[in-house]
Design brief:
four-stranded antiparallel sheet, seven-stranded mixed sheet, Alpha-Beta Plaits, Rossmann fold, homotetramer, 30% strand, alpha/beta
Chain lengths: 283, 283, 283, 283
């Protein structure tokens, strides 16, 4: 049995669940999990995640997809299908701060994150040793205002074909629209504030100056609008009057690691569906 | 369209979701929400909550239930059906501390809790004035060791026929097995600790003495084994070295109110299914 | 022994704690709690809260204050002193939504909040009955764009002399600078978002549209800049993809009640010191 | 200026703060932070943490300690003094699960934890490679029922003289009373439950079976009574009906890492004072 996830979205109407689950049943699949969501039962959109075991001996992948495409057309559905046999490849971009990188490397090595990490790229050299200890290729791609397009070109060269998605694990450079377009795959970023509060630079200092009582970190998809992409996960922690900006940074690192790891795990388990600029994250 | 919730549990096997959603579709119902859970895809139990609009003009309630009973028999399912037109009636038992009572009365009056409160019973007289302000009948049923069975008899007399379930909103007496059996309906309790820690009396003092750093409150169904019933909801809060036992009690009251209100709301929305001594609380 | 709180702030330098605690000791006071905070040990500001029992038989209040004023002058300190015998008077302003009002009335009646509530003012009539049940005078002061100054005049008339501070418990009108100036006392507001996110109107809708995963509520002092005043307390809760704007509002009400109650309790216990636009809230 | 922390506890009485801060002032020390706590202002115990810069050019360490010992005797105080120039040495014991070990190694290397790690001991060989990558000596000390005393003897040999305290970072063996006595220094353990719930083996399975809605992890000092030592830090996380025992373990690992890291940080900053079986953890 091949572990399979089918993600669907379409205009809502009566009978979709019946239609889809009947289809899956008739194709001899064994449903493990099924999640649905309607933004509005009358005239809204319908979202579904179906996790099932596909018996490829009886129903080959190609046939299943072809038959499904017919149903999907009927429903006006956008969809994607993900087979457990196809392990995803995650490229990581990082600058100097290595706590998120380190956390991801350990979660991957321990088997908690079911993903390959074929490459780490950095605009600094500090993390080379750590990364190479894990036997992962490390590429130093310096990045200055004048060399942005050159640097991004080099990064695209490295990422395309070798990665299925990329993670900015405290990569402190803004990636350009053209980079996103040319890469053409998902990019997940960790922002060190509770968005939409404290966009931009040095958010812990901003938070300290504003005198908030709780800080946060936000993992989100990267879009053209910096810090405005769809939010995947947020974590928060309480702070005290004694906490300095450095204390906020220290507490924040824990939040960043956890928010990013949770977001990546949801992504790898295909639990995220985009609804315009919002995410539906099934549990 | 009658807002309807169908709760099902049965042995897991292939095709249940298809079977059920097809049934509902053929009976002209419009699914609003559908939640499933399998404890183990291979040979475990299957749980489902289906929320839909039933068009009683086309499919009368009696016909729907009769047809469904046939399917349920096939599946070996236990089930219950709940119509939005039937507003539930909640009896409240309370002792001296009135914070949960008060909270529930306000949530009910404001429309947040969709329930009737036909009666409040207490073994103390302190809450009479508060309750009667709301136009709700208040009954004082004193309770001593020698009069337990007499008191419980009086309470049963008051609760049976007038209530669909009962809530112990800081009712500080243990109710007997025979009371539970004779009442025959669900009883929800709020325990002022993070169960299974600190069962029994004065849990905030126990927590203070043990020196825990986080306290909690637990809403659970009442069963024969005191403080051992299925947990519905828990809330926690961080405490500090300066906090006295009274500070814990004050913080705890906030947790108790919230845990109990959340549990009752889940109950009223028929989002809870019992799986032996555990609850599945759909969101 | 009179329960007394002394709040101090001054430029930081060596020996302040010794100076102050020696002073208190020589005036026969028994320290219950002492909290200090330095923003920066070298050249920053120093903040102190001293809670002690004053033996007025030995050291009358006037003498204590006169002697202290001498020390304070030496230290260049700003200070205030608060005697437990002087119960504060809190005026409440509210619009239609009564959950915070209700929560405060119950906390006050139960003795949890050590405060008098001499008056409730509203620009709507809905809460009259509730307030009068508590034996508290309710004043309806309608408020329209053209009558703002007239309305604020009436409110000042009601608040001045009868209240020591005011609370906007979901009072949905902006109060003017001149109102704040003329009232001349602290005003605490509850804003229904995790400030600085989602200032302005309908923050739960804004939060839903932005797709955040956590919502919050913020209690803050009211200043000329709307939603920019010093933050006293914030509370947050996790939300899910199924949560509608109304679910956010419901969850938010719990946060608003708790953030406001915590802020008021800190205020009544004189645990808040202002440091420019930030608050130090001793625990 | 030498960064210095003085921890004191004594019977409470009037004037202690004045006495201590005057002493420190007269010895030319510059107070950075001062925290006090009285369990009960009348007849309870008094706890104090004083953080200051000691000018050893003016007041040598030996003189300061000798003078202070006089005051301490007067007050009947137990005390300890800690100089920032003396970096602590932490021995780590671990079994197979390496997430806490790994987390501590990274926090140490990044400078977040101000500590030396001269040794890691394990009853398994799995972590050798990881540890040696960090240039830290790894010692394999197998441990079976029949060899407990032998194993503990070997561990004592390794820990004594080289470490100032030890951390059980998911070390899955019970250490004996005699080991604790002979080591004679603090031992901190991370227990993978929200103590006092779910003592003993496989707490996540216990939690899953009991059906709790929130799980936790607890860092505590190890004493003769297993899982009964003074609690230093606890962390909690919410769980859902879909969460399997393995999901609880995964969520739990995040809690364990954080609770243990926070506890060690508090320990290294000398923010913990023991009050019988409870800890006071200054912030």
């Amino acid at each position: 049995m091949t572990h399979t996830v089918l993600l669907i979205q379409c205009p809502d109407k009566k009978g979709i669940v019946a239609r889809v689950s009947d289809f899956v049943f008739r194709h001899d699949a064994n449903i493990i999990n099924s999640d649905q969501h309607s933004t509005d039962p009358e005239g809204g959109r319908f979202f579904m995640r179906l996790e099932f075991g596909l018996d490829e001996a009886k129903v080959p992948r190609a046939k299943f997809e072809k038959d499904w495409a017919g149903i999907a057309k009927e429903l006006g559905a956008t969809w994607s299908i993900h087979y457990g046999t196809e392990r995803m490849r995650m490229g990581i971009l990082v600058s100097k701060q290595d706590h998120c990188l380190f956390d991801l490397l350990h979660r991957q090595r321990s088997g908690e994150l079911n993903v390959d990490i074929p490459i780490v790229i950095s605009n600094h050299k500090e993390c080379r040793e750590l990364v190479e200890r894990y036997g992962i290729p490390f590429h130093y791609v310096p990045f200055t205002a004048t060399t942005q397009s050159e640097a991004e070109g080099a990064m695209l060269e490295l990422l395309r074909g070798t990665t299925d998605f990329a993670v900015l694990a405290r990569y402190m450079r803004v990636v350009s629209d053209s980079f996103l377009t040319e890469y053409g795959r998902d990019v997940i970023n960790i922002h060190h504030s509770f968005l939409p509060s404290f966009k931009g630079a040095d958010p812990y200092r901003q938070a300290h100056e504003r005198g908030v009582k709780i800080i946060g970190a936000t993992a989100h998809f990267v879009t053209r609008d910096l810090d405005e992409g769809p939010i995947i996960e947020q974590m928060v922690d309480r702070i005290y009057y004694k906490d300095t900006v450095d204390d906020l940074r220290r507490k924040g690192r824990n939040l960043e690691k956890l928010a990013l790891a949770n977001a990546i795990q949801a992504y790898l388990e295909h639990r995220i569906i985009l609804d315009a600029n919002r995410t539906i994250v099934f549990q």
